[in-house]
């Protein structure tokens, strides 16, 4: 798990953590990122948190929006 993500979810409620972790895992799988030490994991985590904080509840939608965010960069 991304160290950034770990720090961000520490104070969240279990339901929020579950939603974000599901989106994070789905995004890693979609982007074929398997190495937990890959710098891309922090970029993915930041995008996931940003999208989740915008009020999207569905993990699949969070993942899709995060991938779009990453493509812009």
Task: Give your account of this protein's structure.
The protein is mainly α and 73 residues long. It has one domain (3-72). It has four helices and no strands. The longest helix has 17 residues, at 14-30. The N and C termini lie far apart (22 Å).
Total number of strands: 0
Q: What class, by secondary structure content?
A: mainly alpha
Number of helices: 4
Measured by DSSP, the beta-strand proportion falls in under 5%
- Multimeric status of the protein: single chain
**Estimated helix fraction:** over 70%
Q: Ranges with pLDDT <50 over ≥5 residues?
A: none
Mean pLDDT: 92
Distance between the termini: 22 Å
Cα gyration radius (Å):
11 Å
Q: Give the overall shape.
A: globular
Query: What's the number of domains?
Result: 1
String of helices and strands = HHHH
Largest sheet: none
Could you name the key traits of this structure?
0% strand, mainly alpha, 73 residues
Summarize this structure briefly.
It contains four helices and no strands. With 73 residues, the chain is mainly α.
Topology:
Elements: H1 3-9, H2 14-30, H3 40-53, H4 59-72
Helix pairs in contact: 1-3, 2-3, 2-4, 3-4
């Amino acid at each position: 798990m991304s160290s950034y993500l770990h720090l961000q979810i520490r104070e969240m409620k279990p339901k929020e953590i579950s939603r974000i972790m599901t989106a994070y895992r789905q995004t890693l799988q979609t982007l074929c990122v398997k190495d937990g030490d890959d710098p891309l994991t922090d970029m993915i985590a930041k995008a996931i948190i940003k999208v989740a904080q915008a009020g999207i509840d569905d993990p699949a939608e969070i993942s899709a929006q995060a991938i779009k965010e990453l493509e812009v960069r």
